[in-house]
């Protein structure tokens, strides 16, 4: 599970098969004092190796690449036995639902389209580095409608026992997060402090083996903890 952003700059690995695209991303990101680009890769296989060697905080990942595509590379990078791997932020030209859903199931912490602004990219890197999932606003409704649809995907049986371990308060927090509530909004509803909410969210993610809030939203809908319109 990706944790809070480090005390130093957010360390980013750029992965895209186009050199000019990588150069553009580097220019955008390195202007920021709190972001450092630590490496570049032109294919998914190289990205997996560099992620293991450099231990970045965030991997900025393209989808369509030679040798190994970005979705397969994301799956290998996030399948970290220590649970301490980098967050993967998918950034693609292709506005395709199959890419979006495959990326989220592979463990990506964010999904953005390349037609966004430089400010969108910088903020997305910071958000996923903090351990918070992010999806482009234009895609959010499609994600919820797909994962929330009854029978859209069978729940992972490995999560059944973990779900039973959630306390009533943790299930309550998960339900609120799944409906899009921020930590501050959850705190207001439950009449507790934000620090308490953060603790609950961290425990929920740890118990369920989830990386971030995006994965928690998907989990909550797939397992019936919340339902569309509920």
Please summarize what this structure is:
GO terms for molecular function: DNA binding. This protein has 230 residues and is of the alpha/beta class.
What would your notes on this structure say?
- The protein is an alpha/beta fold.
- The chain is 50% helix and 13% strand.
- The chain folds into two domains: 10-146, Rossmann fold (3-Layer(aba) Sandwich), CATH 3.40.50.2300; 149-222, Arc Repressor Mutant, subunit A (Orthogonal Bundle).
- The protein has eleven helices and six strands.
- It has a six-stranded parallel beta sheet, with helices on both faces.
- Helix 3 runs parallel beside helix 4 (97-105) and helix 9 (183-190) crosses helix 10.
- It is globular, with a radius of gyration of 17 Å.
Radius of gyration: 17 Å
Per DSSP, the total helix count is 11
CATH topology of the largest domain: Rossmann fold
- Span between N and C termini? 28 Å
- Characterize the largest beta sheet: strand count, sense, and whether it forms a barrel: 6 strands, parallel
Structural class: alpha/beta
Low-confidence stretches: 1-5
Q: What letter string, H or E per element, gives the SSE order?
A: EHEHEHEHEHEHHHHHH
Domain Response regulatory: 11-129
Organism: Micromonospora sediminicola
Pfam families: GerE, Response_reg
GO molecular function, one term: DNA binding
């Amino acid at each position: 599970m990706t944790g809070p952003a480090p005390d130093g700059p957010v360390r980013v690995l750029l992965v895209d098969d186009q050199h000019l695209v990588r150069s553009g991303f580097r220019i955008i990101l390195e202007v920021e004092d709190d972001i450092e680009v630590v490496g570049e890769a032109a294919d998914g296989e190289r990205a997996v190796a560099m992620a293991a060697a450099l231990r970045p905080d965030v991997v900025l990942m393209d989808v369509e690449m030679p040798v190994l595509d970005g979705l397969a590379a994301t799956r290998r990078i996030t399948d970290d036995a220590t649970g301490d791997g980098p967050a993967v932020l998918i950034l693609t030209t292709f506005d395709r639902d199959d890419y979006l859903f495959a990326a989220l199931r592979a463990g990506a912490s964010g999904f953005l389209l390349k037609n966004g602004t430089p400010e969108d990219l910088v903020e997305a890197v910071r958000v996923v580095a903090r351990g918070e999932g992010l999806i482009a606003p234009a895609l959010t409704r499609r994600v919820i409608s797909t994962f929330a649809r009854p029978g859209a995907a069978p729940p992972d049986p490995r999560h059944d026992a973990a779900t039973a371990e959630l306390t009533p308060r943790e299930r309550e927090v998960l339900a609120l997060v799944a409906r899009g509530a921020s930590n501050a909004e959850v705190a207001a509803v439950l009449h507790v402090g934000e620090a308490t909410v953060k603790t609950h969210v961290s425990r929920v993610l740890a118990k369920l083996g989830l990386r971030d809030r995006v994965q928690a939203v998907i989990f909550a809908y797939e397992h019936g903890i919340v339902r569309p319109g509920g």
